[in-house]
Fold:
Amino acid sequence: METSPNNQKILAIVTYITLIGWIIAFMVNSTKKNPLVTYHQRQALGIQLLYFGISVLITITGLVALQVLFFGVLIFIIIGITNASKEQEKPLPILGEYFEDWFKGIG
Structure:
């Protein structure tokens, strides 16, 4: 895939669309590292792991009321996609800076 600026933006957006989207963007971005895509991969991986963690917590505790936390994950995804579409490297609220630090090995 040609890494034109438009494709870079699309790849940055795709990272937020399920784990499969993240893997696709990771593989495409692995040959020619693009800072925008790499940045959003870190943010999106944090969101994916947060989603997984909430799922595990709900499964272990059986507290269905915790499903409201998925709404927060959805908000993070929307913010991430918005930032990617504007080609901004802006961290997600609250956790974005942690994601940058924890996943600095990506890229």
